[in-house]
Automatic annotation (TrEMBL):
Organism name: marine sediment metagenome
PANTHER family from the UniProt entry: BLL1576 PROTEIN
Protein name stated in the entry: Transposase IS66 central domain-containing protein
NCBIfam families linked: transpos_IS66
Domain Transposase IS66 central: start-end pairs: 1-242
């Protein structure tokens, strides 16, 4: 079966490269990474911790998985070398290094910022819930904005500037009055510090109406792989991990386009063995 999959991926590689170029030609993408265990002949008796780096174009509804042996910046730096535009990501420091490239503008993720305050409720319920209430207002306003201007990105931007951006600034102002009252190493202190550190990237969201408030869409694209890890446990080699990345890219993009992946593959490779 492994040889069958490898042969299939060899035929599909030109299409994978075309998908990669199409996504990189966009000027707004989301990025995230997820671990995957891989058998390595140099590590007898244990598995290697590799990573699937994922790049998602929310506007064109396309996703690219790209396997790398590590979580360092070399992988995304190489893949994004020709990219110009917004890169939406979480607070992982590698993305800050990628964002040092003047061609790239980093946009943050409100869900990651909100999650820090959610996790701080047990240690400082009052302050955590004050922040969470403001985040809730942001998402309620975002829902109204999307209903008022569905897919009209030109209208979404000024509506967000009017209704949502001030709420984000309000969180920052509130933290400015409260941060000195809490321990920096407490959960609420860390949540506040994360928000302040990420604020320039969070504010960059309002630079373009296409940019999502968070990275939830790319996390949804990664979810099938997370489920798969519990079933197949590991990939048989680094090459197999990249083949998996290729198929996750195609099938994930099919799902976003409401296309049946099996029917798509049957049509793309007629006569190829599609039954094992």
């Amino acid at each position: 079966m492994g040889d069958w999959m490898a042969g299939c991926c060899q035929l599909l590689e030109p299409l994978y490269n075309a998908l990669k170029q199409k996504i990189l030609a966009s000027d707004y993408i989301q990025a995230d990474e997820s671990p995957i265990k891989v058998l390595d002949s140099d590590k007898k008796g244990s598995t290697h911790q590799g990573y699937q780096w994922v790049y998602h174009d929310p506007v064109q509804k396309l996703v690219l998985f790209n396997y790398r042996k590590g979580r360092g910046r070399n992988g995304p730096k190489e893949l994004l070398a020709v990219y110009h535009g917004y890169l939406q990501c979480d607070g992982y420091t590698v993305y800050d290094k990628i964002g040092a490239d003047p061609k790239i503008t980093l946009a943050g993720c409100l869900v990651h910022a909100r999650r820090k305050f959610h996790d701080a409720q047990d240690s400082d319920k009052k302050r955590a819930q004050t922040a969470l209430a403001l985040f809730r207002k942001i998402y309620l306003e975002e829902r109204d904005v999307k209903e008022e201007a569905p897919d009209d990105f030109g209208k979404i931007k000024p509506l967000r500037d009017e209704k949502i951006r001030p709420l984000l600034a309000q969180i920052k102002k509130w933290i400015g009055t409260e941060q000195f009252k809490v321990l920096p190493k407490s959960l609420i202190g860390k949540a506040m510090a994360y928000f302040i550190n990420q604020y320039p990237k969070l504010d960059a969201i309002f630079g373009d109406g296409r940019i999502e408030l968070d990275n939830d869409l790319i996390e949804n694209a990664i979810r099938p792989m997370a489920i798969g890890r519990k079933n197949y446990l590991f990939c048989g080699s680094h090459g197999a991990a990249q083949n998996a990345a290729m198929l996750y890219s195609f099938f994930g993009s099919c799902k976003m386009q409401d296309i049946n992946p099996r029917e798509w593959l049957d049509e793309l490779l007629p006569g190829y063995q599609t039954k094992v």
